[in-house]
Design goal:
about 400 residues, mainly alpha, 18 helices, about 70% helix, globular, EC 2.7.8.35, UDP-N-acetylglucosamine-undecaprenyl-phosphate N-acetylglucosaminephosphotransferase activity, EC 2.7.8.33, UDP-GlcNAc:undecaprenyl-phosphate GlcNAc-1-phosphate transferase, transferase
Length: about 400
């Protein structure tokens, strides 16, 4: 136990130092968070978490201070591969299908098929992939993914400790400590972002560890425990998918419609949103740990599902997309501007239709010149009108 505490403290300070050091090259290379922000927030915070977790875990296992045990090396290697895929997605824009296929391939190597069976093993691969992508979606606001990840890591570590999986519990403790060191720079307002590298690694490691700790138990109760351990990430994904489907928007086009965005619209501060989602994650994880340890009935998971349903339905009432009528008027104006006829060219001199397309002042001047040609004696004009000969003669007499 003492060795595990030392490893966790080492991972915390190492992640904090690496996040501060990697921030500078990320700024110079222009590797910034693509979300709409008022300031530039560099990536590579996730790389700091991955490096701190892997270095401390491998060093502890190699020196024998904190051995990981059988199978944990494969889990750590698969998580590193997923993190590398996320790093590529941070540098270059990757299609979502590459992330899904890569994460599912890595998950296929860590599922204990001997304990779960083939059918449950395939379902576990899908679940690990889903949770990894859900944590990437949860990284939509400062501190949210890191806070929920820390709480979930301690909960899964407790489940592993119940099953006497000391190596897995140590790895999750080291990972939770690394995320805590990263949160020193990511707490709102963030100075460094987690990115796809860190969020995919976090979701993959937590989901795979939960599946490993829960393997061999009843599948229905196991599914409930897995859901409770990741309830906040699941609620965010369900909310986004249902909301975009109802609004007829593309599912993969990012916008401000996640949990944290809607809570901010309700008046909460950025720090308040992070704390609230962390408390919600703690409540759901606590239920999952109690059910896994046998200290609570499996039906307690239904309370978590009910709360998630109420939250999703309530958050759907928060307007985030804007009035659809305004969008329709703007679209109609844009289409009308595109269909507007081009201005007709000016007529050539001598054309018969010059009086139709010529400006009004030119046509009036032409009419006045024609009147002057027909009546040359009307030399004095007033406001564009010809003067009679009698008035003209009287004016000459009056002026001498």
């Amino acid at each position: 136990m003492l060795y595990g505490i030392v490893a966790a403290i080492t991972a915390l300070f190492l992640a904090a130092v690496l996040a501060a050091l990697l921030r500078v090259p990320a700024l110079r290379l222009g590797l910034l968070d693509r979300r709409q922000r008022q300031r530039r927030v560099p990536l590579f915070g996730g790389a700091a978490v991955v490096l701190a977790t892997c270095l401390v875990a491998v060093a502890g296992d190699w020196t024998g201070i904190a051995p990981l045990g059988d199978g944990i090396e494969v889990l750590l290697a698969a998580g590193g591969a997923v993190a590398a895929l996320g790093l590529v997605a941070d540098v270059w824009r990757l299609n979502a299908r590459f992330l899904v296929v890569g994460t599912a391939t890595a998950a296929a190597f860590v599922v204990p098929y001997g304990d779960t069976g083939v059918v449950a093993g395939v379902a576990s691969v899908g679940w690990i992939t889903f949770v990894a992508l859900a944590f990437r979606s949860l990284d939509h606001a400062d501190g949210v993914a890191g806070t929920v990840g820390v709480v979930t890591a301690f909960g899964v570590a407790a489940c592993a400790a119940v099953e006497v999986m000391d190596g897995l519990a140590v790895l999750l403790s080291v990972f939770a400590a690394a995320l805590t060191g990263f949160l020193m720079h990511n707490w709102p307002p963030a100075r460094v972002a987690l990115g796809a590298c860190g969020s995919l690694f976090a979701g993959f490691l937590l989901a795979a560890a939960a599946v490993t700790a829960r393997a061999g138990h009843a599948p229905v109760a196991g599914a409930g425990v897995l859901f409770a351990l990741t309830a906040v990430a699941v609620a965010d994904v369900v909310l986004v998918v249902v909301s975009r489907r109802l609004a007829r928007r593309p599912l993969l086009r990012g916008t401000s419609d996640h949990l944290a965005h809607r809570l901010r619209r309700l008046g909460l501060t950025a720090q308040g949103v992070t704390v609230l989602l962390g408390v919600a994650a703690f409540g759901a994880v606590l239920v999952g740990v109690l059910v896994h340890a046998g200290w609570a009935d499996a039906r307690a998971v239904w309370w978590v599902a009910g709360v998630v349903l109420v939250v999703v339905l309530g958050m759907l009432r928060v307007a985030v997309y804007g009035p659809p009528r305004a969008r329709g008027r703007r679209d109609r104006r844009a289409r009308g501007a595109q269909r507007a006829p081009a201005p007709r060219p000016a007529p050539r001199p001598g054309s018969g239709s010059a009086s139709v397309y010529a400006p009004r002042r030119q046509s009036e001047g032409r009419r006045q010149s024609e009147d002057h040609a027909h009546h040359p004696e009307s030399g004095v004009r007033r406001t564009g009108r010809s003067v009679s000969p009698q008035v003209n003669a009287s004016l000459r007499v009056r002026n001498g």
